[in-house]
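Hi U.,

Before I forget, here's the chain from the pilot set. I'm dumping it here mostly so it's searchable later in email.
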Amino acid sequence: MTRTPLAGVACSIARATDLFGDAWTALIMRDVLLGVTRFDDLAEDLGISRKVLAARLARLVEEGVLERRRYQDRPPREDYRATEKGRELYPVLLALMNWGDRWCADGSGPPARVHHLGCARDTTAVTVCAHCGEPLTTGNTVQLPGPGGRTGPGTRVLGPLLESREPISADPAGAGPDPRG
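Structure:
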């Protein structure tokens, strides 16, 4: 099955899923970020074909998400390490994990826990406003057009919808109109 490329769509979600939208890529990044960095270990852990793994790793290196590092000269062997760009995926994977724990669990509990070293407690990912720290939800946010936005493939309906929206200032009484129309 041929996938439609999404890299040209004026949407950051589309562009990101063009690279990370398949399950193998997300699982490879999970493993690398948690310390499984060698090709053979990744293949064994994931049960993925060597051909598919090689292709996904090559793309992640090409995109600057992972880098190869030589750990043995004879025979030559390399492992894969997350770059800064790759490490910034960690909160995204934590949010996906949190959602999966809530909505896709099999009843036996989460397969893994996230333990915060700073406070020595187990935690979950929460997306909050960078300015006030309030959790972000569909009920308290609205998306407005950005400088890189345009109407085209992947945004033929969404683009004009965002363009029709006006910025909404905070209503201290909380009784303002619904920002989504």
